[in-house]
Structures are given as structure tokens and as C-alpha cells.
Amino acid sequence: xxxxxIDRKKPIPLYYQIEEILRGKIISGEIKEGEPIPTEEKxxxxxxxxxxxxxQALSNLVRxxxxxxxxxxxxxxxxxxxxxxxxxxxxxxxxxIKQGFTPSSKILSLKKMKPSEExxxxxxLDDNDQAFILRRLRYLNGEPTAIDTTxxxxxxxxxxxxxxxxxxxxxxxxxxxxxxxxxxxxxxxEEIIDATTTNHEESVLLGLKIGSPINLRIRIIFLPDGxxxxxxxxxxxxxxxxxxxGRL
Length: 248
Fold this sequence. Notes:
Layout lengths: L13 H14 L12 H8 L3 H13 L3 E4 L3 E4 L5 E3 L6 H7 L4 E11 L3 H7 L7 E10 L2 E11 L12 E2 L2 E2 L2 H7 L7 E10 L2 H7 L6 E10 L5 E9 L2 E3 L7
Parallel strand pairs: 3-12
Antiparallel strand pairs: 1-2, 4-5, 5-6, 6-11, 7-8, 9-10, 10-11
Helix pairs in contact: 1-3
């Protein structure tokens, strides 16, 4: 990295400006996974700020899971990027295992109630229909990476409970449960990928600063006959990987 000027006239702390610049270089791949970032001394020179400012920026990036500090070695870009493909319907659990991660989840809540009009419309529910609302905090290698909120019509999974997601002490994929316990085949999905920022609760759960940029995914799963099975709204730290073939 060459010397980078930061705007000292902005009402934004210098450490935060540096943090966002480094975050952008990591996410863009300019600084790759597993690579060391410049030393604190070098970063002082690059940004023209004090060592204290540099350390605060790096500390925040470590807490957010982008960097890891190794004793007597330096600070490195953490190898925790999860590249989620956007082709095919694959569960978070299955894809994480395929990429060599250890996935886990914490159920934040499971309720049965009348969902919002937005969800009722997406799931083609009547006004009085209820849905199970499952909210989970997802982890990769012990690091919080996503918050999922899933809505499933009660009439399709009448006995659904937290126990469905556990098998001999191990969390089971929700897709696996729907297909193998309730005999519901996941045939097709519509998905929107957007960007948003974290609110206070999301920031605390994911170890981010309030208002941090993050991916937003809305997915509607359909049965073979076109019946909506689930409405999923998720925020993710992970990246999305798309392979394009041929010129249109």
C-alpha cells in the first residue's frame, strides 16, 4: 500500500476511517486471506497518524473477525471467509462443511405467531394463518457470521420444535429436517441479495460496530407444486461467489 490520505476535516474518527479503508482492501482481495498486513510502524507512515490510532483500528478489525494477531509474528487477514455459492439450494451447514469449516448455531428464538403482511404475501398465507418463526445465530469455527430468521407455515410442519434441529447433540440442517422428517422437497428458490447495515442487537451478536455494512439475503423456498415452504431473511458476513460461463 502506498501512502493514503485520510480526511481530517470529516467528523469521522481517524481510526474508523483507517478501519474502513483496511476493511475494503481485505474484502476486495487486495490483501488476501492468510497474508500479513503492514506493521504498525508502516501503517503509521502510510496514514500519517499515531500508533494509538493505528492500534484502535486494528483492534476493531480483530474483534470483527477480519484480522487475527499472532504473537511474535504480526497481524494477518483471518482465513474465515465463507464463499456461499448462489447456484442451487444448499444448506448453510452443508456448504460450510464442504468448504472445511465447522458450522454451529444458537437458537435465539422459536415462536408460533401470525407473521407480517410481507411474509404472509410471500408465503401465500391467509390473514389468520400462523407461521413458525425461527431465529438463529450462525457460527463458523466458533465465530459468529450470520443471523437467520426463517418463517415456515404451521400447516406444513405442525409439530415443529427445537428438538427437530438436534440429533444426538449435534445441530441438524433445517433443510435436512424439512426433507427427512416432514417429507417436504425443496424444489426451487427465489433469492434477492442486497446490502444493509447492522442495528444495535445485530452488532452485538456479530461483534460489529453499529451501522456496519453487511450482506442481506431474502430467500423464498418452493415445493414442487409451487407452494411456498419458507421465507428466509438473513444477514451475513460472508461473501458470495458466482461463476459465469460464456458471453451473452
